[in-house]
Fold this protein.
Amino acid sequence: MIPLQVRDVEEGSRDRLGRPLHDLRISVTDRCNFRCTYCMPKELFGANYRFMPRSELLSFEEIVRLAEIFVAHGVGKIRLTGGEPLLRQGLEDLVRMLSAVAGLDDLTLTTNGSLLSLDRARRLRAAGLERLTVSLDAVDDTVFSSMNDVGFSVEPVLRSIEDADRAGLAPIKINMVVKRGVNDHEIVPMAERFRNSGHIVRFIEYMDVGNTNGWRMDDVVSAREIVDTIGRVHPLRALEPNYPGEVARRWRYVDGAGEIGVIASVTQPFCGACTRARLSAEGKLYTCLFANTGFDLRDLMRSGASDEALSATIGSLWSRRDDRYSELRSSHTPPQSRIEMSYIGG
């Protein structure tokens, strides 16, 4: 079969609001070794929870096939997520296969860092991984262990960030989900831990993703409050986005000690510039982080669909997209059921 070429899809795909398809997040597993209370609470994801068997997951070949079609529709950036993606056996092979996709400009990975050794970081870099994001919600060991809810210490994660840096995966982004009364007192310590490191901490407003985290607006620490909290200790100035549609608002330390980012999906929605599609571990396409249903591309592939048929389906799904949940959450009743963040990688 002749592979679909980038030129076969004119000017990429745009949705009903004129937003192009540029970013694709691919979940490679629904499993995680943490039970973070805002993502996979152990009350629901306990010992008897049924995770997907290997046969239900997209194979590496299926992931790459879909990636090539998404690139033909305008995707330039792919982020591998989970669950915890480093639990997927042979992940380096997938990275190597994706890095060879013509037209893909940026290949990144989000991890909790617990399984990332120096050797593995070097193997991922050699396979073609360009950058890394590490989820880290506190630098205090007691707070961090409580939030991951499996008693995992913060020191191995901090070491994994150093190892990733040594392996050439820098600058590293560190994502901190901020929840009032839980880890908001860690905002300044987190900022100070990575000042002058060359890495970028991104503070994320606690979001109402899925149905299991007991989200309340009262638990949200706003982006404005986060910036003011840091700015009182280390003055900041606003920066322009690196590119159109960048989700994090950028701030640089006035003294030149680096920068931070703030992701304000709740108080400063950025739906109007959202260019992301999400592919679940078993091949369902979601056009919004807050979606309640996805389209099954795996069954379409396994039933013998051609690249052209898959491309037409993806283009049609994106062209009908009008998602803007974050802009509407305060004025509309939210859907009764939403996909869990752990299922599509946030």
Observations:
- The two ends are 34 Å apart (CA to CA).
